């Protein structure tokens, strides 16, 4: 069983990594690249509570109260869950001596979640196959999740420095 300090480190690593990804997404948006609307994630989560898993188009699904807040909360909760995944694979000692390779590997592997779960559930098809440019969207997702992996490493380094 993990200690409170270890759990705190993992939660902070997940939040930090998600923040790094968000900074990347803000940069992309500023240079004119379309990024994910987190309200759509909140809409999907809101519909889950009503028993609806898949949509033909999440953009055309009925809006859910507070969907933007649900989307952001879900976004950070998933980032924390992915940090727990990293630590369950590499061990809690990783939080004290993080390696870039393991963080990037987990970040890259997490791209399976949007490609195989979120995009199909939101009506975009497996690996964005129902979008006008699926390969471009898949590459963009891979880059975003690689940035998340980098964020796992950077956050762990900062948190280790703070906890010393």
Automatic annotation (TrEMBL):
Membrane-crossing residue ranges in chain numbering: 7-27, 73-95, 102-122, 142-163
Keywords, ordered alphabetically: Membrane, Transmembrane, Transmembrane helix
Top-rank taxon, per record: Bacteria
InterPro entries associated with the record: DUF2938
Pfam family membership, one: DUF2938
Protein known as: DUF2938 domain-containing protein
Species this chain originates from: Azonexus hydrophilus
